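Q: Two folds, back to back.
A: First:
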Amino acid sequence: MKYLYILIITSITLLSNDLTHIKITTHNNNINLELTFSETLDRKNIFQEKKSIKIQKVTPIKAIEKKLQANNATLYINSTHNTLHISINSLKSYSTEYKVQKNKIKISFNHLSNKQNFSTQYFIVITILCFLFYLLWRIKRYIPKKQNDMPIIKSHIIDSKTKLLCINLNNKQYIILDSPNSKILLDTIISPEDEK
């Protein structure tokens, strides 16, 4: 049984790929990582996620934690069970891309600009404003309009749309021609008490 475990462990380490070189560069909020291995990499062993990449069949290494001050991000490189994990931890949004060239892999963590977030916020605000305008328009339609209560003393109909009105306001009487398009003041009658 001992020999079986030794055989399995040696076969795994023989099939594994050694990480020989790590190069980390930053440029315009983008983080570039170049890893060099002892043998060529198989694309089937590389798995990409949102903010991380896993490379299988790699000899275990000691965990590396690199804090990048310019980007306010932390880059983690560690391995478990012959799988190399590369991930980034940051408050900013990053997209992950990689290219494989024989025994090298170039990983780019590209900073997503705020323009995408801005456009989303812009459309949300515009949608809310349109909804509020629609709501106000609906409310305005259903609120009864304030009507002027004029104390009408007499009313004479001239035709189907025009009337002659006599109203009383502030101890004065007014004769008004009322039509759909306009209201015309024809005469003002002052009460005898106001003449004195």
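A: Second:
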Amino acid sequence: MPSHIIDYTLFGDLFSTPEIRAVFDERAMLRRWCDVEAALARLPDPRATPGSRERSSTAS
């Protein structure tokens, strides 16, 4: 069920263009959220200090 007027098939073209609806499309939004989460997962741990990884691997 549509939650906003631009999501309605009948009224959508009166208030937006297909290009704008694609920007705010639920699938596109979820895809961008996943892209952001993946990018954050690739960042180094901000709590890590230089050499902490080397020290922890030699300690075991």
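Q: And?
A: DSSP finds four helices and no strands in the chain.
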